[in-house]
């Protein structure tokens, strides 16, 4: 039998898989054949912050058939490291470097290294989220309670037709892009809490609710006020309290990298009188922004002049957000249970460090979620390697790598690629971050997942073209079938699944603003809705989803199967996205399981047709 010299995902070679805590001992082992005629073996470690490679001798240990182990133990401080191996032999000098799937191969060149993430030893994330379900709500479009709205600016267009397509034209009078409101509010969310509980929801993530003068509210006008169309701080307190009684917690969207130009802080339009950074050179807010040619020359988020960038290095601004009386603490005191940070990778480390200190000081059990679209353990932004998941900043991130991999697998195939994506994240992230990942398939920033999965043709077209698009009956049927398969994977991988409001009801549409349509109360796709409710019950009843380890059992172009194993619970999942029926073996420990969701087991095997799935758990 042949063995690989090294496998970073196998406990035979590593005493601790994945990211490791600072100060802990990690044992690494290399396995080399007797014919290699080895003289000396070294572990080579490089701190990401410098170019110095440290060589650590490895000691010859026991034999495994014709192979010999070489061992060493290391203890690391917090940081990001890269490592490989070097050995000298009767045949010359060689390296063991990283290849696919975490495997090490012998090479004459020291090129690809393995990643080692080392996080603070006291790093933890909230237990209350683990094993749960997040539901993301774009507040204006979920449900209108009918409560009278007070002090609403008169330049907003209030749409009277709940199911009307969102306006996509920028110059269409008052009913223009970003200025059409449907009246969804906090009281409406509170009224629908029983519906969310029935779905299995344990956490609601709200897109921005601060006062702002567009329906998306990412252009904050006043952090200290709830937007009048959504309600009041009293309404927010009531929502948090009532939700808590239903076993549901609330987190808010924090947009701190920029504000709106039409805000109390910048006030370019003069809505807030004569003050503000733009209109008053002596304003206390002027240094919160990055002027280079006052007043019209200033840095704006991605060049959008209506979104002036904040100066997060300014002490006054940082204190306003993170201080003892800052915005973060104000809303935690009102009853929220955490923050989602918009464009977290555009916020400087010092700001994020202070943000975590403020939030955890106010509520150690609060959740800090960051918007990062790539692997957050090794992300480089603004010329620097980031340390989001090492214990001093975020708890976890929005899991775009999983989302992209699931959608790509269900739509195009590639179970091995999906498995590789999952294992890569598990290898690079701390376990507490893995267990609290936000595993979404769609958000306010993406086209509706049903549209993505239902249509195989071109997605190229401007907003006018997109406005006229709707899935055909056959596309819709295919989309629903694929979405069910995708949701089974989403709900059973490590992390916490996140539903974007209405996905469970069959909402379709391209990107902004079409992905932000109203929830279709009374017109839901009932088959899909009942499926999601049942899937939520499976997740609730199987404790392995809280923090169970992940193991790939089988993966090919058309299918994937895997297990999750917790202390007292195990689950087996299989999905076939291919058009041909596929017979998949069920591991022996599941042969007596009675809890089955999807296709049924027969003689320790399951036969799955196109986009069919099976979950077996105990």
Helix content: 10-25%
Spans with pLDDT under 50 lasting ≥5 residues? none
User: How does the major sheet shape up?
Assistant: 10 strands, mixed
- The general outline is globular
Superfamily (CATH H level) name of the largest domain: Glycosidases
Q: So what's the CATH class of the largest domain? A: Alpha Beta
Please name the CATH architecture of the largest domain: Alpha-Beta Barrel
Number of domains: 4
Radius of gyration computed on alpha carbons: 26 Å
* Alpha carbon gap, first and last residue: 35 Å
Question: SS-based structural class?
Answer: alpha/beta
Number of helices: 14
Characterise the protein shown here.
With about 625 residues, the chain is of the alpha/beta class. It has four domains: about 5-120, Immunoglobulins (Immunoglobulin-like); about 140-255 and about 310-540, Glycosidases (TIM Barrel, Alpha-Beta Barrel); about 260-305, no CATH class; about 545-615, Immunoglobulin-like (Sandwich). About 20% of the residues lie in helices and about 25% in strands. It is built from 14 helices and 33 strands. Strands 1, 2, 3, 4, 5, 6, 7, 8, 9 and 10 form a ten-stranded mixed β-sheet that branches. Helix 12 runs parallel beside helix 13. The longest helix has 20 residues, at about 475-490. It is globular and about 80 Å long.
